[in-house]
Design brief:
mainly alpha
Length: 71
């Protein structure tokens, strides 16, 4: 999985894949210093799957997203 370099494990990918079945969708948030209880209250009917990234992994992931969207 190309996201292993960013700290997103195969286990997390499998968990998301198993959770997002036909008729469901996924929303991925990239946040810093999030209050998970507050996020959970906003998405009360959702299943939250979280992952913590190091500062280095976060910077690499942001860079990859920016590179994918640069014309």
């Amino acid at each position: 999985n190309r996201f292993n370099d960013f700290g997103i494990s195969d286990t997390l990918i499998r968990e998301v894949r198993a959770s997002v079945t036909e008729g469901k969708s996924a929303l991925f948030l990239l946040v810093e210093q999030a209050d998970l209880d507050r996020i959970a209250s906003v998405f009360a009917d959702a299943t939250l799957i979280t992952s913590d990234l190091s500062e280095e992994q976060l910077a690499e992931l942001r860079s990859a997203f920016e590179a994918d969207h640069t014309p």
